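Recap from last week: sequence in, structure out.
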Amino acid sequence: MSTRANILITDGMDSMWFYRHSDGYPEGTMPTLELFLSWVKDGYIRDNVGQSAGWLIMIGNTEYHKKQIPTKDGYSGWKVGSYEPTTCQHGDIEFLYTIDLIKKTIEVKAI
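Predicted structure tokens:
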């Protein structure tokens, strides 16, 4: 069974949710979240949700090591990457990660 997780990115004003269907345990998730946050800390990407959160999708795509290319019969894969935008916290997660863009921290909670 997959280890599922949610990631909440917040900047004190806005928030955005992401879902990770597998490898949601800290050893599988923290390296990519730490990379994302390092880009914020180093000023490569903005420290607000609207202008930074999309980069998490890009980072998640690199985990798949393939391009999701549309074909006549559909798509070559059903997910763009390991992080999917979602509307809220899911009921089947084992971990919740909160990235605070103002404090520049990542909090991990076992659910």
